[in-house]
Amino acid sequence: MEEEEKSEYSTSIRTYTKVELAMMYNPDQCVDNALHTLSKWIRYNEKLSMELNEIGYNKFRRSFTPLEVRLLFKYLGVP
Q1: What is the pLDDT of residue 11?
Q2: What is the pTM (predicted TM-score) of this model?
């Protein structure tokens, strides 16, 4: 079982599926729109995109690693 990382964030730093995290950021949208919105935020945030690429982010993977989640929280805020 995966251990959740304790951090300065109120939401745990752990592996999240893209759907799970997209719905946390956009709870009033349908799943497809929430995913599209999150992906657009990542694309248009140049610093976030650059840092994600540096750590080997794969946009086709269905989940975010804890390190990717940490970067998302840093640049997009905690959902």
Answers
A1: 77
A2: 0.85
